[in-house]
Design brief:
globular; 255 residues; 5-stranded mixed sheet; 9 helices
């Protein structure tokens, strides 16, 4: 069973086919996120990536916004208003002829790294700031903490997004990331916090103290496998899609 894992970001869209054990079966492919990032433009980018990835049996997509039952609720860092109500899972199922699941991109990234014990938190840093919360391995979807108020009248995302880093410089930006981590430490009393996303490469893990890890951005793709295999992702059950002619609809086997 091979899973095509797609990660939609504000700057780039990536794809990789992963085997049942989490091993990469293809080279990771990337294209720039279209501008404007309309549903049709992003759809065509995903279809182009999928065409170059060879054989796969199902599809997982990490999307930068609120996702409920495969339908987009928000897409602040894309062409937001056009995305509201867009049935991305159904559209991809129709175009690719494979079962499809879609979830928030930070949530998917976390599924690739969390250990499944206690409270774990994922922060992704790139065009914006993604956030994922996990309780004993169970993902709590669509919190979107990045858009909550943080400091000086700004949201978390406004303080540590890529545009702000470019404006104030990487040194000051790192200090702000540290402030975010410490706020989350006292808010959630996490067992572990993971920092991922494209800008994680600008950070040093040793600067954050205990229980904080900087992780490879490829987790945003590998985590897509667990949308299908992890029973803790129970909130995603309704995202199953069965291609026409494949027999009676049914759930994938749970472990």
């Amino acid at each position: 069973m091979r899973t095509l894992c797609v990660d939609v970001g504000g700057a780039g869209i990536k794809a990789l086919v992963v085997g049942a054990g989490g091993e990469a079966r293809t080279e990771r492919a990337r294209v720039p996120t279209p501008r404007p990032a309309t549903p049709e433009a992003v759809l065509q980018a995903i279809l182009g990536l999928a065409a170059g990835q060879g054989h796969y049996d199902r599809v997982s997509v990490g999307f930068p916004g609120v996702v409920e039952d495969g339908v987009i609720g928000t897409a602040v860092n894309l062409d937001g208003e056009e995305w509201v109500g867009y049935p991305l899972a159904d559209v991809l199922h129709r175009e690719l002829g494979r079962p499809v699941r879609v979830a928030n991109d930070a949530g998917v990234q976390g599924l690739g790294v969390v250990q499944g014990h206690g409270t774990e938190v994922v922060v992704t840093l790139g065009t914006g700031m993604g956030f994922g919360l996990y309780i004993d391995g169970r993902y709590v979807p669509n919190i979107e903490l990045g858009h909550h108020p943080f400091r000086k009248g700004q949201s978390y995302e406004e303080r540590v997004c890529e545009a702000e880093r470019a404006k104030i410089g990487t040194k000051r930006w790192r200090k702000r990331v540290h402030q975010v981590v410490e706020q989350l430490r006292h808010t959630f009393n996490f067992r572990e916090l993971y920092i991922g996303g494209g800008n994680a490469r600008l950070l040093a893990e040793e600067d954050f103290g205990e229980r904080v890890r900087v992780v490879d951005n490829v987790a945003g793709l590998i985590g897509g496998l667990r949308l299908w295999s992890d029973a803790d992702v129970s909130t995603l059950d309704d995202l199953d899609r069965v291609p026409a002619g494949a027999g009676s609809p049914g759930r994938p086997a749970r472990r």
